[in-house]
Write a structure and sequence with these properties.
Strand content: under 5%
Largest sheet: none
Shape: flat
Radius of gyration: 27 Å
Length: about 110
C-alpha cells in the first residue's frame, strides 16, 4: 500500500502541468483588437498612398525577360518603416479614433 502513493505522486505532478492555458483577459482581447484595427488603418493608408505601385505589373524580374536587373536591397524599406511607425503610433494613441464612443456625462446629483 505504501508503494501506490509513491508511484502516483510523479504521475500527478506530470498531469498537473497539462492544464490548458487560462482564457485571455478582457485587456488582452482589447489590446489585440486595437492592434488589428491599427494594422487595418495602416494598410488602408498605404493602399491609398501607393495605389500606382499596387496596380502596376512589371515583367522586369520575370524569367527569360532579357532585362533582368536585380532590385536594390533597400527597395521598400522606407515604406515598411513608415507602415510600422504608423501602427506603433496608432497603438500608442490607443486606436484609430473612429470607433470610440464619447464619454458619458456624469448623472446629476439627486436632490
Amino acid at each position: 500500500m505504501s508503494r501506490l502513493p509513491a508511484l502516483l505522486a510523479p504521475l500527478l505532478l506530470v498531469l498537473s502541468g497539462c492544464q490548458p492555458p487560462p482564457a485571455p483577459s478582457s485587456q488582452t482581447r482589447a489590446d489585440a483588437a486595437t492592434l488589428a484595427a491599427c494594422r487595418d488603418r495602416a494598410n488602408e493608408v498605404y493602399n491609398r498612398q501607393n495605389r500606382g505601385t499596387i496596380y502596376s505589373i512589371t515583367n522586369r524580374d520575370a524569367p527569360f525577360s532579357g532585362s533582368y536587373i536585380p532590385a536594390p536591397v533597400d527597395s521598400g524599406l522606407s515604406q515598411l518603416y513608415t507602415h510600422e511607425n504608423r501602427i506603433r503610433d496608432c497603438v500608442r494613441n490607443t486606436g484609430t479614433e473612429t470607433t470610440r464612443a464619447p464619454t458619458p456625462e456624469p448623472a446629476p446629483p439627486p436632490q
